[in-house]
C-alpha cells in the first residue's frame, strides 16, 4: 500500500525547524545547515569537498561532482538566508590535497559565495590546514555568544557547543518500515550537526561514541528528509 | 547422494518403445550416426555399456559424431535422458585415446554450471563411470569453496576435466598464465544453459567463451539444456558471431523428445478457496494426504517465506510424523546438506523447497511434485515437474495447489501450456555494459590488450554482437577513469598506454582489487541469523551466540523490532537485535508467529500464461470446468460488471467508503503493475483526482482517490485513453525514477558489478549497508551532473526488464490502445475483490519515504501537545 501524500499537512511545513542551544535560537534546515538569526551566521559541518577525487586517487572512480553538488547546495542556502558570516565546522576538505585537486570552476564558485561576507574555516581532523587559495579565516574553534563552535565535540562537562565530526544519523522504525537518515542531535546545551557534504555517510546516534556527549539526558533528534526536517521521538529510533 | 551414482551420468537401458527421438540440424551428422558403435566407442567404454546390458542412446551417439567433426552442438533433452554423460562422452573418449599432443597445461575439458553444488554433484556422478570403465581421466571441481592451495595448483597442473562456475572461469582468465592453462582446451560443456544464458552471468560467460576461443581456437562447445521456447538463441550463444548485420550463426542441435507427458492435477480442497494470498493454507490437509500416498514428494513454493510457512503448517497437521524437511537458499549450507543426504538415503517423505532445487541435481527418487501457489510460468512448472520420476517412459506426477481464485485460472493455464508443451519465451537481451566493464578490466589484468582486437572478440559473443564501437570505447573509458563528462581523473587512470597502442593496468593493486570483487551475482545484502539464549539484558546483547541458522535479507531484518516473532529454518524465532552483520534471535514460545506478507510472488506472471488466463476469462464456455466457487465468481462478474475480451483491458471505477477506486486488469505481472501504479498516481494527481494510494498484484491494480473518478470521466475532465497513453513512459517515468528506491537498488547492482563500488577491499570487508548508502548518493549526484553516464544507462537497461518491467509495461500500453473497456459501477465488482483485499497487506518498495518521517513527526507533535486521540 502506498500512501502518497500526507492528508493533514502542507508540503513546506517542515523545511526548517526552530532549535535552541543554551537559550539561543537557531533555525535548522532540511539540508543539514544551521542558521543563527541573531548573528546572521550560517553554519555547516563536514563538507568533505573532493571526497570523490580522493577515492579516485586510490583507484575507485567515484563521480567527480561532489564538490560542485555541495557548493550548489550551499549556494542555495546563502540565497535563502543571506548570512553575513559562513562558518564551516571542520572537515571541509576530505584530505590535505583536496584543495589542489579542486576543479577551477568550483574554486571560482566558492570565491563567489565568499564575496561580501566573512568566511570562517574551523579546522578538523581531515583538514588541520586549509590551503590559502581557498581564502577565508582559518581557526581551530570560535566562541560566539558563549557557545563554542568547533569540529569535534568535547565529551563530559564541556557543553555549550555546536560541533560536527561524527556525522550523526538516525534509524527510524515506524509503520513497519525502516528509514536511515542524517540528523541533528542535541540536548539544548550541545548540538551535533549532520555532515553537509554530498558523499558523506552517517553514524547511528545510538552508537557508544554519543553516550559521553549526551549521557542519559533526553535527546532531541531532527531527521533530514527530502522535503523537510522532521523532529522524531528517540523511542522510535533503533540501532543499526 | 551416491546411492545411485549412475542415475544422472549413466545411460540406462534404452526404452523399448523408443519414445526417444534424436534429431539433428546437420544432415551430415545424421548420416554419420549410422557408424557402428564398435567403431565409435573404445573397447573399455563399449565393455562398460555391455556389462550393464545398456546401449548408448541415439543422442549420445549423435553428439559423438558431431564431436568427431568438431561441430559445436546444443543438446536439448528432458531430465533422465543421460544428458550429462552425452556431454562428457566425447571428452572421455578423446582423453582416453590421448592422441593429442600437449602444448599447454593439459586442461582438456571445461564444464561450467550455474551452481557450484551442481558442479560438485556432476563431478561425483562422473567419477563413478570413469572408475568403472577404468579410464585414466582426472576430474576436479573448482569453486569458491575450493581451497586456495588447490586453486593455485590447478592453474599450473589442472585436471583433464575441470568442473566450475562462470565466475571461476572469469577469474582464471584474468591470470597472466591463462594462455598456458587453456592452450590444450578441446571441449567446453555448458550445463543448464537455459538457466544461465539470458542473465548477467550469461553475459559474463559469453565473454569468457569469446576469450577461450581466442586461447584455444579449435575448441568445441556443447550446450546442455532443458526444452526452451527459442533454441536458436542458445545455439547462437555457443558459436562465435562474425557480423552483427548478417544472420546469427548457429550451433548444431540434437533434440531428445520427452517420454510420457506429465500428469498434472489441480488440487480441489474441501475448504473453499480464498480470495487472496499465496500460502494455500486452506488445502494443507489434502497436501499432507498426497504426501502420505507417495514415496517422496517435492513441495515447491515461490518464496522463502512461503516455504517456511508451508513447512510450519504441514507439521502442525502431521499427526503421523511423516519425515518432512525444509530446503531453501537462506539456510546454512550444513543444514541443507543434511537434508540432501537424508533425501538421497530415502529417509524423507517430503521436502518443502524453493527454486534452490529447480536445477538438475539428483537427490533421490521423487515420485510426486506438489506446487503450492501458481507456478507463474509454464517453463518453470515443467522444470520443477521434471524433478519427479526420472524414468523417461513413465509420466511425472504433479499436483498444483492454487493459493487464490485468480491462481486457479493461472494453474489451469499452466496445465494447458504443459499439455501443449509450450514454453515461456525469454526476452533476448543485449549484453549488459556493467558486465562488459568487469570483463575489460579482467582482460587488462591478464595482459595488456589492444582495444581494436578486444572489440572484435567481444562482438563475437552473441549478447554483444550488436555492441557499437562507441559503447565499447565508453566502457573502456569507464573502466579507466570512471567515464565522466568532467575529465578530471585522467591522472588517476587505471589503464595506461603500453606499446603498440595497447592498454595495461596502471599498477598491481588494481589486479588485486579486481580478483577480490569479481562476479556478477550481487544479492541483496544478507545478514546471518544466529541463535542466542533469550535471557540477558537489552544492552547486553553481545552474548556469545549459538549456531548460525542461515541468512535473511537485510531489508527484512530492518523492519523487525526486538520482541517480534517470525518463522525461519522451520522454527518460531524471537528477534533480539542486530549486531554488525548478524541478526540475533532466540527460540520463541509463540504459537502464532508474525509472518511478514511481502514477496507475494517473487516471479511475476509470465506473458505466456497471462495470455492464456485472459483468454480463459473471456470465454464463459470453459468456466464450467473450473471449481464451483471460481465459476460462480466469474458468473457474478458478468452480472455486476463485464468480463473483458482477450485483447481488451477492463477498467472499473466505483466509490467505496469515502474513497473512489479505479481498478485495471492488465494481467502483466506485479512488477509492471507497480510501475504502472506509480505513473498513474502521478498523472491522476496532476488532473486533480487526488490519489491517495495504490496496490498491485499479478493480475490487477487498484488506485484510490479522494476525487470522484467516475464523474471526472463522465464530465470529460478525465480521458482514460489519455491517462493510459504510452507517453507516460516519457517525462512521468523520468521524474519518478529520480526518486525511486527500486531504481536506486538497480543502480547499486550495476555499480558493484561494473566495479565502481567495491564489495571487498584488500584487508577489509565492506558491509552491504555501507554500499547501499554510498550508491544512493552517487546515483543522485550522477543524475544531476552527468545524466548520460554509462552506469545510468546500464541501470536503466536493467530496470526496463527487471524490477520495474518497463518493457512489458510499454508493450501493454501499445496493445491496449483503443481497447479500453470502461465500466462505471456503484460498488466494488467481484473481480476487484482480490486486489482490494491486498490493501494494507501488501507492502511495496519505494513508497514515499518522507511520508513516514512526517507521520513520525506528527506523532511527536501529538505527544507534545497531549493529543493522544489517535
**Tally of separate domains of chain A:** 1
CATH topology of chain A: Purple Acid Phosphatase, chain A, domain 2
Can you tell me the CATH class of the largest domain in chain B? Alpha Beta
CATH domain class name of chain A? Alpha Beta
Helix content of chain A: 10-25%
Q: Quick one: which chains have the greatest interface?
A: A-B, 53 and 66 residues
pLDDT averaged residue by residue of chain A: 89
Oligomer: heterodimer
Kindly provide the radius of gyration of chain A, computed on alpha-carbon positions and rounded to a whole number of angstroms. Answer: 18 Å
Secondary structure topology:
The complex is a heterodimer of chains A (240) and B (870).
Chain A lengths: L15 E6 L2 E6 L4 E3 L4 E4 L6 H6 L9 H16 L3 E4 L9 H4 L2 H11 L3 E5 L14 E3 L1 E4 L2 E4 L10 E3 L4 E7 L2 E10 L3 E3 L10 E2 L6 H4 L5 E5 L4 E4 L4 E2 L2
Parallel strand pairs in A: 4-5, 5-6, 6-7, 9-10, 10-13, 11-14
Antiparallel strand pairs in A: 1-2, 2-3, 3-4, 8-9, 11-12, 11-17, 12-13, 12-15, 15-16
Helix pairs in contact in A: 2-4
Chain B lengths: L5 H4 L12 E3 L2 H6 L4 H4 L2 H9 L6 H11 L4 E4 L6 H15 L11 E4 L3 H18 L5 E4 L5 H9 L4 E4 L1 H8 L4 H5 L4 E4 L2 H4 L3 H16 L4 E6 L5 H8 L13 E5 L6 E4 L17 H9 L4 E4 L3 H14 L6 E4 L5 H12 L5 E4 L14 E5 L5 H8 L11 E5 L3 H16 L12 H14 L4 H9 L9 H13 L13 E3 L5 E3 L2 H10 L8 E6 L16 E6 H5 L6 E4 L2 E9 L2 E6 L19 H12 L9 H13 L8 E8 L2 E6 L5 H18 L3 E6 L4 E5 L3 H6 L5 H4 L7 H7 L3 H14 L5 E2 L2 E2 L2 H18 L4 H12 L4 H10 L4 E5 L8 H5 L11 H16 L6
Parallel strand pairs in B: 2-7, 2-8, 3-5, 3-6, 4-5, 6-7, 9-14, 10-12, 10-13, 11-12, 13-14, 17-21, 22-28
Antiparallel strand pairs in B: 1-8, 15-16, 17-18, 19-20, 20-21, 22-23, 23-25, 24-25, 26-27
Helix pairs in contact in B: 5-6, 9-12, 14-15, 17-18, 18-24, 19-21, 19-22, 19-30, 26-33, 30-31, 30-32
Amino acid at each position: 500500500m502506498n500512501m502518497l501524500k500526507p492528508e493533514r499537512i502542507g508540503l513546506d511545513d517542515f523545511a526548517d525547524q526552530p532549535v535552541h542551544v543554551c537559550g539561543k535560537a537557531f533555525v535548522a534546515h532540511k539540508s543539514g545547515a544551521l542558521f543563527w538569526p541573531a548573528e546572521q551566521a550560517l553554519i555547516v559541518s563536514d563538507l568533505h569537498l573532493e571526497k570523490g577525487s580522493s577515492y579516485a586517487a586510490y583507484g575507485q572512480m567515484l563521480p567527480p561532482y561532489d564538490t560542485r553538488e555541495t557548493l550548489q547546495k550551499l549556494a542555495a542556502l546563502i540565497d535563502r538566508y543571506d548570512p553575513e558570516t559562513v562558518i564551516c565546522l571542520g572537515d571541509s576538505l576530505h584530505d590535505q590535497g583536496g584543495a589542489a585537486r579542486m576543479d577551477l570552476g568550483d574554486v571560482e564558485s566558492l570565491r563567489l559565495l565568499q564575496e561580501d561576507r566573512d568566511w570562517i574555516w574551523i579546522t578538523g581532523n581531515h583538514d588541520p590546514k586549509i590551503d590559502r587559495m581557498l581564502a577565508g579565516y582559518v581557526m581551530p574553534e570560535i566562541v560566539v555568544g558563549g557557545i563554542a563552535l568547533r569540529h569535534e565535540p568535547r565529551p563530559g562537562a564541556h557543553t555549550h557547543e555546536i560541533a560536527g565530526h561524527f556525522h550523526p544519523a538516525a534509524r527510524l522504525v515506524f509503520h513497519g518500515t525502516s528509514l536511515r537518515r542524517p540528523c541533528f542531535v542535541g540536548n539544548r546545551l550541545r548540538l551535533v550537526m549532520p555532515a553537509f557534504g554530498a558523499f558523506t555517510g552517517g553514524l547511528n546516534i545510538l552508537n557508544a561514541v554519543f553516550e559521553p556527549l549526551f549521557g542519559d539526558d533526553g535527546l532531541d533528534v531532527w531527521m533530514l528528509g527530502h522535503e523537510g526536517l522532521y523532529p522524531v521521538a528517540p523511542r522510535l529510533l533503533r540501532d543499526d | 547422494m551416491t546411492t545411485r551414482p549412475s542415475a544422472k551420468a549413466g545411460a540406462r537401458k534404452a526404452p523399448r518403445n523408443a519414445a526417444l527421438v534424436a534429431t539433428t540440424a546437420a544432415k551430415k551428422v545424421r548420416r554419420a550416426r549410422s557408424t557402428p558403435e564398435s567403431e565409435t566407442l573404445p573397447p573399455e567404454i563399449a565393455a562398460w555399456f555391455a556389462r550393464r546390458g545398456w546401449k548408448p542412446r541415439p543422442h549420445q551417439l549423435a553428439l559423438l559424431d558431431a564431436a568427431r567433426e568438431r561441430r559445436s552442438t546444443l543438446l536439448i533433452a528432458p531430465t533422465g535422458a543421460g544428458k550429462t554423460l552425452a556431454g562428457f562422452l566425447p571428452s572421455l573418449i578423446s582423453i582416453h585415446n590421448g592422441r593429442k599432443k600437449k602444448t599447454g597445461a593439459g586442461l582438456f575439458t571445461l564444464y561450467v554450471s550455474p551452481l557450484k553444488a551442481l558442479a560438485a554433484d556432476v563431478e561425483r556422478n562422473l567419477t563413478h563411470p570413469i572408475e568403472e570403465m577404468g579410464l585414466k581421466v582426472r576430474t576436479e571441481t573448482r569453486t569458491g569453496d575450493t581451497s586456495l592451495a588447490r586453486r593455485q595448483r590447478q592453474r599450473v597442473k589442472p585436471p583433464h576435466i575441470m568442473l566450475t562456475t562462470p565466475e571461476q572461469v572469469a577469474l582464471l582468465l584474468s591470470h597472466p598464465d591463462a594462455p598456458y592453462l587453456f592452450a590444450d582446451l578441446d571441449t567446453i560443456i555448458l550445463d543448464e544453459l537455459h538457466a544461465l544464458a539470458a542473465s548477467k552471468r550469461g553475459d559474463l560467460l559469453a565473454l569468457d567463451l569469446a576469450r577461450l576461443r581466442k586461447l584455444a581456437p579449435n575448441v568445441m562447445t556443447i550446450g546442455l539444456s532443458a526444452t526452451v521456447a527459442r533454441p536458436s538463441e542458445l545455439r547462437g550463444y555457443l558459436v562465435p558471431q562474425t557480423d552483427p548485420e548478417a544472420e546469427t550463426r548457429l550451433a548444431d542441435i540434437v533434440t531428445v523428445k520427452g517420454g510420457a507427458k506429465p500428469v498434472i492435477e489441480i488440487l480441489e480442497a474441501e475448504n473453499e478457496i480464498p480470495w487472496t494470498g499465496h500460502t494455500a493454507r486452506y488445502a494443507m490437509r489434502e497436501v499432507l494426504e498426497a504426501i502420505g500416498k507417495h514415496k517422496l514428494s517435492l513441495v515447491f513454493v515461490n518464496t522463502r517465506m512461503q516455504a517456511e510457512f508451508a513447512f510450519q503448517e504441514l507439521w502442525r497437521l502431521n499427526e503421523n510424523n511423516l519425515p518432512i524437511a525444509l530446503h531453501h537458499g537462506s539456510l546454512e549450507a550444513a543444514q541443507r546438506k543434511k537434508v540432501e543426504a537424508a533425501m538421497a538415503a530415502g529417509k524423507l517423505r517430503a521436502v518443502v523447497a524453493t527454486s534452490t532445487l529447480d536445477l538438475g541435481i539428483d537427490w533421490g527418487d521423487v515420485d510426486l511434485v506438489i506446487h503450492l501457489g501458481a507456478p507463474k510460468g509454464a517453463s518453470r512448472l515443467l522444470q520443477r515437474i521434471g524433478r519427479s520420476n526420472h524414468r523417461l517412459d513413465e509420466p511425472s506426477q504433479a499436483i498444483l495447489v492454487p493459493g487464490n481464485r485468480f491462481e486457479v485460472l493461472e494453474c489451469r493455464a499452466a496445465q494447458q501450456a504443459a499439455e501443449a508443451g509450450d514454453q515461456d519465451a525469454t526476452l533476448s537481451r543485449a549484453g549488459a555494459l556493467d558486465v562488459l566493464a568487469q570483463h575489460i578490466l579482467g582482460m587488462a589484468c591478464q595482459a595488456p590488450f589492444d582495444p581494436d582486437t578486444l572489440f572484435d572478440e567481444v562482438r563475437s559473443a552473441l549478447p554483444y554482437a550488436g555492441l557499437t564501437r562507441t559503447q565499447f570505447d565508453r566502457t573502456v573509458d569507464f573502466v579507466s577513469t570512471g567515464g565522466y563528462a568532467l575529465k578530471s581523473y585522467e591522472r588517476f587512470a587505471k589503464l595506461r598506454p603500453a606499446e603498440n597502442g595497447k592498454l595495461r593496468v596502471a599498477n598491481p593493486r588494481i589486479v588485486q582489487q579486481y580478483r577480490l570483487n569479481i562476479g556478477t551475482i550481487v544479492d541483496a545484502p544478507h545478514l546471518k541469523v544466529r541463535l542466542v539464549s533469550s535471557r540477558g539484558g537489552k544492552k547486553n546483547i553481545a552474548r556469545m551466540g549459538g549456531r548460525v541458522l542461515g541468512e535473511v535479507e537485510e531489508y527484512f531484518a530492518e523492519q523487525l523490532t526486538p520482541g517480534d516473532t517470525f518463522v525461519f529454518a522451520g522454527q518460531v524465532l524471537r528477534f533480539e537485535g542486530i549486531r554488525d552483520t548478524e541478526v540475533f534471535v532466540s527460540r520463541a514460545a509463540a504459537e502464532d508467529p508474525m509472518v511478514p506478507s511481502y514477496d507475494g510472488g517473487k516471479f511475476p506472471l509470465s506473458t505466456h500464461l497471462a495470455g492464456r488466463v485472459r483468454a480463459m476469462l473471456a470465454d464463459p464456455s470453459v468456466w464450467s470446468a473450473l471449481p464451483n466457487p471460481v465459476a460462480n465468481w466469474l458468473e457474478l462478474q458478468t452480472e455486476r460488471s463485464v468480463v473483458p475480451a482477450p485483447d481488451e483491458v477492463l477498467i472499473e471505477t466505483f466509490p467505496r467508503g469515502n474513497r473512489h477506486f479505479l481498478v485495471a486488469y492488465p494481467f502483466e505481472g506485479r512488477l509492471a503493475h507497480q510501475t504502472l501504479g506509480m505513473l498513474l498516481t502521478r498523472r491522476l494527481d496532476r488532473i486533480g483526482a487526488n490519489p491517495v494510494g495504490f496496490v498491485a498484484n499479478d493480475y490487477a491494480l487498484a488506485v484510490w482517490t479522494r476525487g470522484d473518478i467516475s464523474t471526472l470521466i463522465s464530465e470529460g475532465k478525465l480521458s482514460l485513453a489519455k491517462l493510459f497513453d504510452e507517453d507516460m513512459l516519457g517525462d512521468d517515468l523520468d521524474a519518478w525514477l529520480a526518486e525511486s528506491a527500486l531504481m536506486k537498488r538497480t543502480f547499486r547492482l550495476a555499480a558493484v558489478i561494473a566495479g565502481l563500488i567495491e564489495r571487498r577491499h584488500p584487508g577489509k570487508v565492506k558491509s552491504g549497508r555501507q554500499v547501499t548508502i554510498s550508491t544512493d548518493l552517487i546515483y543522485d549526484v550522477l543524475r544531476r551532473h552527468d545524466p548520460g553516464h554509462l552506469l545510468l544507462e546500464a541501470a536503466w537497461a536493467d530496470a526496463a526488464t527487471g524490477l520495474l518491467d518497463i518493457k512489458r509495461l510499454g508493450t501493454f500500453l501499445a496493445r491496449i490502445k483503443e481497447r479500453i473497456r470502461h465500466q462505471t459501477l456503484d460498488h466494488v465488482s467481484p473481480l476487484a475483490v482480490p486486489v482490494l483485499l491486498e490493501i494494507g497487506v501488501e507492502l511495496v518498495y519505494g513508497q514515499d519515504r518522507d511520508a513516514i518521517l512526517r507521520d513520525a513527526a506528527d506523532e511527536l507533535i501529538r505527544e507534545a501537545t497531549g493529543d493522544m486521540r489517535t
